[in-house]
């Protein structure tokens, strides 16, 4: 029985230390052409393409909003699933951000954020990546000895109220279908690699900084989808809790189901 308890404890421990699971964000629009697949709406594809999907989502894996950053007191307030109960003591907790090509870091010796760390979190721009490095000691449940371990994760500062396509989900998918997907299959090859297009919704709700993140392998297809994104109607821009409008990055992906994931 003792061995079983120890084994379960270790499984739980390592489950917690791999704490960050990708979050594609609530602001995500997905159309899947596999009718009846759980979690996706049923649609009628414009062509016979039973294994294709297209989606628009924020380009962040581990987002944390501005309000959370400004109110954070502990490292666990900004890192989802932080394994605080397993940590015996800290060697250091480092927060690192890069602003205007300059790396800035603030270090503490506990999970309590210092004044310097709080100030750093409050000054960063939206879309900035925040690297969190933690070196700590924990009690190994197998050997019952104190051992060293570390955490390395990256989170991204996002607006409190994310940008939205005016007209909502249905209008978004209708536009992408008519202006992007159909034209692609009418003018381009019927088979190509999964494509990803990055773009920014600026403070005025306009589409800017459109670029190919992953090419389809066909220049005509890439160009058609870039044009579709560039001509997209204005969005409702993202805002912070104080009502200040800020820009936000998104990614449009299209191709075989499975693709690049979050």
Q: How would you characterize the overall build of this protein?
A:
The protein is of the alpha+beta class and 262 residues long. 24% of the residues lie in helices and 35% in strands. The chain has helices spanning 2-17, 66-71, 115-123, 168-187, 219-230, and strands at residues 28-32, 52-58, 63-65, 87-99, 102-108, 129-139, 146-158, 164-165, 195-201, 207-214, 235-236, 238-239, 245-246, 248-256. A five-stranded antiparallel beta sheet has the order 1-2-14-9-10, with helices on one face. Strand 9 (195-201) and strand 10 form a beta hairpin. The longest helix has 20 residues, at 168-187. The radius of gyration is 22 Å and the shape is elongated. 25% of the residues are buried. The model is unreliable at 1-50 and 257-262 (pLDDT under 50).
Biggest sheet, in brief? 5 strands, antiparallel
The outline comes out as elongated
Estimated structural class: alpha+beta
Distance N to C terminus = 40 Å
Helical content stands at: 10-25%
The helix count comes to: 5
How much strand content do the residues show? Answer: 25-35%
Strand order of the largest sheet: 1-2-14-9-10
Helix-strand pattern: HEEEHEEHEEEHEEHEEEE
| Poorly predicted ranges | 1-50, 257-262
Please provide the count of β strands: 14
Q: Radius of gyration in whole Å, from Cα?
A: 22 Å
The overall pLDDT average reads 76
């Amino acid at each position: 029985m003792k061995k079983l308890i120890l084994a379960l404890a270790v499984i739980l421990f390592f489950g917690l230390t791999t704490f960050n699971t990708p979050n594609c964000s609530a602001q995500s629009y997905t159309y899947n052409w596999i009718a009846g697949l759980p979690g996706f709406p049923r649609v009628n594809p414009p062509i016979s393409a039973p294994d294709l999907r297209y989606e628009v989502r924020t380009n962040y894996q581990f987002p944390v909003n501005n309000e959370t950053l400004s109110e954070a007191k502990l490292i666990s307030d900004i890192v989802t699933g932080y394994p605080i109960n397993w940590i015996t003591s800290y060697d250091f907790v480092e927060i690192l951000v890069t602003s205007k090509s300059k790396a800035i870091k603030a270090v503490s010796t506990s999970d309590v954020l210092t004044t310097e760390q709080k100030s750093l979190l409050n000054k960063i721009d939206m879309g900035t990546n925040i690297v969190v490095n933690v070196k700590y000691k924990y009690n190994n449940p197998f050997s019952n000895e104190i051992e060293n371990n570390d955490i390395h994760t990256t989170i991204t500062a996002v607006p409190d109220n994310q940008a939205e396509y005016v007209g909502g989900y249905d209008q978004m998918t209708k536009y992408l279908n008519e202006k992007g997907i159909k034209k692609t299959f009418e003018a381009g090859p019927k088979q190509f690699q999964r494509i990803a297009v990055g773009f920014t919704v600026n403070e005025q709700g306009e589409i800017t900084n459109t670029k190919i993140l992953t090419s389809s392998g066909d220049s005509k297809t890439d160009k058609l989808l870039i044009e579709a994104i560039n001509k997209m109607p204005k969005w409702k821009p993202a805002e912070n809790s104080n009502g200040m409008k800020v820009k936000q990055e998104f990614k449009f992906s299209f191709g075989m189901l499975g693709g690049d994931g979050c």
